[in-house]
Design goal:
The complex is a heterodimer of chains A (1042) and B (478). By secondary structure, chain A is mostly beta strands. Helix content of chain A is 6%, strand content 45%. Chain A has a 22-stranded antiparallel beta barrel. In chain A, strands 10-15-16-13-14 form a 5-stranded mixed β-sheet. In chain A, strands 3-2-5-6 form a 4-stranded antiparallel β-sheet, with no helix packed on it. The model of chain A is unreliable at 1-12 (pLDDT under 50). Chain B has a domain at 4-73 and 88-249: Serine Threonine Protein Phosphatase 5, Tetratricopeptide repeat, CATH 1.25.40.390. The chains are: A mainly beta (1042), B mainly alpha (478).
Chain lengths: 1042, 478
């Protein structure tokens, strides 16, 4: 621990007392807290609440007035004793204040690392209720994906690509709100919950309460947050009141939404198998044409139903919020209330959120101020199992109306052995109900003018109650058993599952800052601090199945009860220091060091140190550059960050064996093989950047390059069941990410009442898995089923980028010599080779074991372009974003092929000659029929047919290019002119119309390539098949200020 | 100024000391390495409960797909993957078998360390049994490098089939030895032992039965020793009362569950026409009275099976005009037990071994006793039973007894047991009127199953190629 006490006294002749008042030039408001110093000395003073100061100085000296966010002002001391100063707000972006790590306000100019700020107006103009979605397309280097279009659906945020090899490890950044570390996890507690698009917890925050969000990207930006900030930090600052009159703001919005796009389905062939119609058939679309069916069955409809479209409806959204703010010089407050109610496009999914907030600030004295921010909210709704719904829609034949799902006695109406998806969605429900409180108190004490002590303490606690219910079996005559509405042991007999999660985290941060001016040109700041994070999670589950009374969802009504509990404690403490030097306000050097102690690793590996250094050089202030250039800054930084394991990754023992009824007890191996020798992983990041502004800020850009390498990654890899575990925790391997980020802001037109602002974000990340543990040739991150063993696997392979997709391919032609040399066993498909055609005239499926690389899940680049046009009281904004180069496995398309529903299967009665080579090297000339059964033209029996024997088993056809460009939102708003609002009651009013997710340009054939079948907490985004369809929404908003 | 300086000194010193105090005072605060959700020392009898339930459930899981190859069951949809010998993914059955074997490995370690020799014997026997299930289905499989605790290998290599066979035999022999010890420290608990309710002598008989099965399995090999088989059988079951019964389920017996679901249109458990025609007189010209006790009549008052690969014929598949697994059968009702080896099967092993040895009389006696005890188990009336047993096509006389007859009758007593597929392969599917499934993906009968997708994903460098699924396994070849 270092203690600095500098006192330097210079003998000065004829000192007199100078006094005066400092005000803001534009408004005349007084400015307290302005630093007044005598240039060339260490003499300093500050203005009080009235803006008055007094200081000792001599004639000929210069007083310097400086305040964060304002241009510094120098005034000479003359004969008089009064010197008033009028400070102007700084026009250069570099003097802007940015809230960085730990709530420390830094000037943009001094930052050697990348941070990008999003203001409240930028965040909220497209009215997204989930604040993570609200950031889409607005920040370079940040990839945000909505996992689907359901109300409250989780959204995943990732900064600078994947930096963790473990597919289940959270790669998401740390969320900090008003200094409190805020939980943004996605809990998948509950049977079937992982397929229900559960929310990420950031959904609890009302985006309208946010003043600004600062995204800290690189290692150095987050070195002061420690290992929890290793994936980046999203620093959220909520609004605070301002002294003055009480202001009241009301915002109300109403809107509707529909599914954005549906995959194309065939409408020619109806229910049946091998061209034979059967109204009870399991097969939805392998029957004859509609006319042929109608000849047999007059009740067959004239046209097939478009049952996938019919299964979705129009959703609605209503939101009301009210904000009160005001205060005096000593106390300010901001209070807000809001209510959100959203109904999804898939009945009966919905989401409600009631939020209340109270932010207060207190100025107890010149030296001491404090603040308390509290928010409480209740959110939740009915969550749909979209994957299952869409899968069941595949099994449903378009010959029947899927919306006709109830018999007279209220049980399921269906045909054959098929379940009606609408019935299942209505009767098999899952609801969550979260009550959350986030509170933070902060204290700032400035005992001396060079020493500042800040302390923040906060609590984030919530309870998440979930209820899963399914109607049981009434045993009525003809009642169909819906196996979904039950358990494996008692299918269709109903269940009532009660889950509860209690989460409580407390964190406290203490920072002492001391700054010192060594000379005119050179000053330094030292910060030392300690922070503590303590998290406690308790989960309970009681699952009751086999209900006696079919619709009484009480645990006492269940014949079988299974209960379990889960407990988790996690603690983390960090000690850190930051030393920054300022040379002439154009050269800044900051050095940090931090030591973390974690509870998730075993001693001695649980305590580790990591440093960082950043340099910021504003060379426009050093050299004389052409006038057009307002400022130019060069940045360079290096940072190392450590990362620990998930709690209990070092543990071993035995778990409860849960397949036994009451009266018996057993133990079995747990799923995870723990490792007590786990070490922390470290990531080293180098970063450099350039930012410049031109033409009085009409044009500016920020370009950045980064290179980061993570070593000794801690991963829970899925392991072979032959070792007796499902996953194992290991330090395995290293990964490298490098890339560029570019943002450009411009105001191309500013003439009179019209202006056009544009902002462009672009980033490209290149990832490579450098190595895995010696005995591992690959790690399976995830896999999804495909017919005929055409499962698609997401494998992490050394030397390749994260997320290669492998699956079953068609055989290509190789000469006998090439086969002898083993060339056909390579993992890559040679696109120049023709297909191998068998003697039967059909392409040949390659062996299941011989999987080929079919694509990669990472994009080549992502970008966003937003534009705002202002004309008098009208404002029009639109945002386009794009993600290009990634591939996804479309399981939906695989099933559509297997069940004859895809549009292209309309060629099933055609004959064709497959292009390719026979094994002997001659080109194929054999014409074949694509249908099932006996070909009427030739009499040849084709059995189950091409689509069933071959096409549905070719993963190649279903791993698709998922690049997309999207018109993310368009918003038009109109502020009512003052002369319309003549009364004293209403101060301002505006209306706006917003459209979100309006247009999607992509070659992907599924619902939406951005969605995913995994939840928002997962890193596996390879599968975009049976997802909750994304929605196009329109919202009308009225804003009134009183 | 001095006061101020002192104040500063105090506050700075305070800042310096605080975190140091925090660290030194709370060393345990960061020590969270014991997972509160796991136990460190589970009681051996609780491990026994898990072991016995898992072994029985795994038998049923394996029977759930082998019964399609043995044509006890058929898929109600045409071209079902298992029915038609397609490449299927049986990851679930493989995983369940290995998780069970890993638990048994832990149980063996614990039993050895505390001297619970009865538990050690049970664990070794069940380990051999489930290793057998795996190797009979897939062939070579991990074992010597598996289970983690001996060797810490994440990707075990595959042992060849013969070594797996030897390993299983060793386990059974050692297990029998352990069960016979009297110096055990903990007895098998009556409630916790879900198969034999604490009766070590019964376990020994089961072990000999399993041993006989293993010895009989290599009937094609030159090393086959019928004397050894018979000698093991002498210490195995002597009546139906000796069988093991596992009937502790979270819900109901899994076969019964299939029947329940089928009755409410979640189709499954449809009987193959191979079994139904065997019993209803079509194939052999004699109605086997057991048919009424295995399944129920159709709505048309007859017994009809479904041809494998063909799927439902006749009316809609909601019309019950074919036979299914029945809740009225003693083997497949809600509270039925799962039995890993039955007394009738033991008799048939005896019949076969004795026949191969040349002891026709012993073979014939065992053969008749096997049929009789199976009929008694199923609840066939004494007169129907005796009528069948005295029918000349059944009671052919010791001199006319053939292997075909033995396998024909054994087929009925091994209903739904995975061992049936082993027998079928050993007899090269030479059952009267046994047909290839409709639209089969192979040209001849299936002999093994493709390795599971999970293994290919997680242990790919060690998984051997599947070869053609009609290539016989090691024991299935001379």
């Amino acid at each position: 621990m270092l203690c600095f006490i500098f006192i330097s006294i210079k003998a000065v002749a004829q000192q007199k007392t100078i006094h005066g008042r400092v005000t803001i030039d534009e408004t005349g408001q007084v400015l307290p807290g302005v630093t007044v110093s005598v240039k060339g000395t260490a003499m300093r003073s500050q203005t009080n609440e009235e803006g008055n100061y007094s200081i000792q100085a001599a004639i000929g000296q210069t007083l310097v007035f400086s305040y964060i966010g304002m241009e510094p002002l120098e005034l000479p001391v003359g004969a008089g004793n009064e010197l008033n100063a009028r400070l102007k707000a700084s026009s250069s972006g570099l003097d802007e204040v940015v809230v960085t790590a730990l709530g420390i306000k830094r000037e943009e100019r001094s930052l050697g690392y990348t941070a990008q700020q999003v203001s409240a107006s930028e965040l909220n103009y497209n009215k997204q209720p989930n604040l993570v979605n609200a950031l889409q397309g607005k920040v370079a280097g940040v990839t945000i994906s909505s996992t689907g279009g359901s109300p409250g659906q989780g959204a995943r945020i990732q900064i600078r690509g994947i930096n963790s090899i473990d597919p289940n490890r959270d790669n998401q950044p740390l969320f900090v709100i008003d200094g409190v570390l805020m939980d943004n996890s996605t809990s998948t507690q509950g049977a079937s919950a992982s397929g229900r698009g559960m929310s990420n917890r950031a959904v609890d925050i009302n985006p309208d309460d946010i003043e600004s969000i600062n995204i800290l990207r690189g290692g150095a930006a987050t070195a002061l947050y420690g290992l929890r900030g290793a994936n980046g930090v999203v620093v959220i600052t909520t609004k605070s009141g301002k002294s003055g009159d009480i202001k009241i703001d009301y915002q109300g919005s109403a809107g509707f939404e529909n599914v954005l796009r549906f995959p194309e389905l065939q409408d020619t062939y109806t229910q049946g198998w091998q061209g034979e119609y059967d109204p009870e058939s399991f097969w939805p679309s392998w029957g004859p044409t509609v006319e042929e069916a109608r000849a047999i069955d007059p009740t067959h409809p004239e046209h097939l139903y478009n049952h996938v479209k019919d299964a979705f409806t129009t959703g609605t959204q209503y939101k009301n919020s009210l904000t009160f703010s005001g205060g005096t010089d000593k106390v300010t407050f901001l209070s807000s209330l809001s209510q959100l109610n959203q109904q999804g496009v898939m009945s009966p999914t919905d989401f409600k959120n009631y939020q209340a907030r109270l932010n207060t600030t207190f100025k107890l004295s010149d030296k001491f101020n404090a603040g308390v921010n509290m928010s409480i909210n209740n959110s939740g709704g009915y969550r749909g199992n979209a994957g299952r719904y869409i899968e069941q829609l595949i099994y449903w034949t378009p010959r029947y109306d899927v919306n006709d799902y109830l018999e007279e006695n209220g049980t399921m109406k269906s045909y054959g052995s098929t379940d009606n998806p609408r019935y299942v969605a209505e009767t098999n429900r899952f609801k969550d109900d979260v009550l959350r409180f986030i509170g933070a108190a902060n204290f700032n004490y400035r005992p001396l003018d060079w020493l500042n002590l800040a302390y923040r303490v906060g609590i984030d606690t919530y309870r998440d109650n979930r209820l899963g219910t399914a109607l049981g079996f009434q045993d009525l005559v003809g009642e169909r058993l819906v196996s979904e509405n039950g358990t494996d042991a008692a299918p269709g007999m109903g269940f009532v599952n009660v889950y509860n999660q209690n989460f409580r985290s407390i964190n406290s941060t203490f920072v002492a800052s001391a700054d010192h001016q060594f000379s005119d040109n050179f000053s330094a700041t030292l910060r030392l601090g300690q922070d503590l994070y303590d998290r406690y999670v308790r989960r309970e589950a009681t699952e009751g199945s086999n209900l006696t009374v079919y619709n009484w969802f009480s645990l006492g009504n269940a014949k079988t009860l299974i209960a379990n509990t889960y407990l988790e404690k996690y603690r983390l403490m960090g000690l850190f220091g930051e030393l920054s030097f300022n040379y002439k306000d154009y050269l800044y050097l900051t050095v940090t060091g931090r030591n973390d102690i974690t509870s998730s690793l075993a001693r001695p590996n649980n305590s580790f140190f990591y440093p960082s250094a950043t340099l910021s050089y504003i060379f426009s202030d050093h050299w004389h550059l052409p006038d057009a250039i307002d400022n130019a800054k060069f940045r360079f930084s290096y940072a190392r960050i450590g990362k620990d394991a998930d709690p209990y990754s070092t543990s071993s023992g035995w778990a409860n064996y849960t397949s036994l009824p009451t009266g018996y007890s057993g133990f079995t191996r747990p799923s995870l093989l723990g490792d007590p020798t786990l070490k922390p992983e470290f990531t080293d990041t180098w970063e450099t950047g350039l930012s410049m502004a031109f033409f009085e800020n009409r044009l500016s850009f920020d370009a950045n390059y980064y290179h980061s390498v993570s070593k000794d990654q801690i991963i829970n890899i899925p392991v072979s069941s032959t070792i007796g575990y499902v996953t194992a925790a290991i330090n395995a391997g290293s990964m490298r990410n490098q890339g560029i980020e570019l943002s450009v802001n411009a105001t191309p037109v500013k003439r009179g009442d019209f202006s056009w602002d544009t902002r462009l974000n672009f980033s490209a990340n290149r990832n490579k898995i450098l190595s895995l543990r010696e005995d591992l040739t690959q790690i399976e991150a995830g896999n999804e089923f495909g017919y005929l063993s055409s499962n698609v696997y997401m494998w992490l392979i050394p030397g390749q980028p994260y997320g290669d997709l492998y699956g079953r391919a068609l055989k290509r032609y190789y000469t006998d010599d090439e086969i002898a040399a083993g060339l056909d066993q390579s993992a890559e498909i040679d696109p120049n080779r023709p297909l191998l055609i068998g003697a039967d005239g059909f392409p040949v499926l390659d062996a299941v074991a011989n999987k080929k690389k079919l694509g990669n899940v990472q994009p080549d680049w992502i970008g966003g372009w937003s534009n705002t046009f202002n004309y008098k009281d009208l404002s029009l904004s639109f945002l386009i974003d794009a993600r290009v180069g990634q591939d996804r496995y479309n399981q939906l398309a695989n099933f559509y092929s297997a069940f004859g529903m895809a549009k292209y299967t309309e060629n099933r009665n055609d004959h064709l000659v497959f292009e390719g080579m026979l094994a002997d090297g001659t080109p194929n000339t054999k014409e074949v029929w694509l249908g099932q059964g006996v070909d009427p033209a030739t009499g040849v029996d084709y059995g189950d047919g091409y689509y069933r024997y071959i096409h549905r088993g070719v993963s190649e056809y279903f791993v698709e290019d998922a690049s997309w460009v999207r018109l993310r939102s368009v918003s038009l708003s109109y502020r009512f002119p003052q002369k319309w609002i003549q009364n004293n009651f209403v101060k301002n009013a505006s209306v706006s119309v917003t459209g979100n997710n309006l247009a999607l340009w992509t070659n992907y054939s599924g619902f939406d390539p951005e969605s995913t079948t995994t939840n928002s907490g997962s890193n596996v985004d390879a599968f975009a098949g049976m997802t909750y369809p994304s929605v196009r929404s329109f919202l009308f908003t009225l804003n009134v200020g009183f | 100024m001095k006061m101020k300086l002192n104040k500063i000194k105090i506050s700075l010193v305070g800042i310096a000391v605080l975190p140091v105090m925090l660290i030194s005072g709370c060393k345990d605060y960061f020590d969270q390495n014991e997972n509160p959700n796991l136990v460190q020392d589970p009681p051996i009898n609780a491990m026994l409960t898990t072991a016995t339930q898992k072994a029985a459930l795994n038998m049923q899981r394996f029977g759930g797909f082998t019964s399609y190859y043995a044509q006890y069951l058929a898929n109600p949809s045409a071209s079902g993957a298992t029915d038609t010998y397609q490449v299927t993914d049986n990851s679930s059955e493989w995983n369940n078998a290995y998780y069970a074997m890993s638990d048994l490995k832990d149980m063996m370690v614990k039993a050895e360390s505390i001297g619970a020799y009865q538990h050690l014997g049970v664990a070794k026997l069940l380990m051999a049994y489930q290793l057998g299930l795996v190797t009979d289905t897939w062939g070579s499989a991990p074992y010597s490098q598996a289970f983690w605790i001996d060797n810490n290998i994440l990707t075990p290599t595959y042992d060849d089939e013969e070594s797996l066979y030897q390993a299983a035999m060793t386990l059974i022999n050692e297990g029998i030895g352990d069960l016979q010890r009297s110096d055990f420290t903990v007895a098998l608990d009556e409630t916790a032992d879900l198969m034999h309710h604490g009766n070590a002598a019964a376990w020994i008989k089961t072990a000999y039965g399993i041993k006989a099965r293993f010895l009989n399995k290599i009937s094609k090999k030159p090393t086959y020793d019928p004397t050894a088989v018979l000698s093991a059988l002498d210490s195995a079951y002597t009546s139906l009362h000796d069988e093991s019964h596992m009937n502790v389920f979270l819900g109901i017996n899994p076969w019964a569950q299939t029947a329940v679901s089928n009755a409410s249109n979640l189709l499954g458990g449809w009987l193959s026409d191979n079994l139904v025609n065997h019993l209803n007189g079509t194939t052999y010209g004699l109605v086997d009275p057991r048919i009424a006790y295995i399944t129920d009549e159709t709505v048309n008052g007859n017994y009809v099976g479904t041809r494998n690969g063909q799927g439902n014929v006749g009316g809609a598949n909601t019309i019950h005009d074919e036979c299914y697994i029945s809740q009225n059968c003693v083997l497949t009702n809600d509270t039925s037990s799962l039995v890993i080896i039955t007394y009738p099967e033991i008799k048939f092993i005896e019949a076969e071994a004795a026949w191969r040895q040349g002891d026709q009389q012993r073979a014939y006696t065992a053969y008749l006793e096997g049929i009789k005890s199976n009929m008694d188990k199923l609840g066939v009336s004494a007169s129907d039973r005796d009528d069948y047993l005295s029918n000349p096509t059944v009671a052919v006389g010791a001199g006319n007894l053939s292997l075909d007859l033995i396998f024909k009758e054994k087929y009925v007593v091994t209903y739904l047991n995975p061992e049936a597929w082993n027998d079928m392969r050993r007899h090269d599917y030479q059952y009267k009127d046994f047909r290839m499934p409709v639209n089969a993906y192979l040209n001849t009968f299936i002999r093994h199953v493709a390795y599971p997708a999970d293994e290919r994903g997680r242990n790919s460098s060690n998984v051997p190629s599947d070869g053609s699924l009609d290539t016989p396994l090691w024991w299935d070849q001379p």
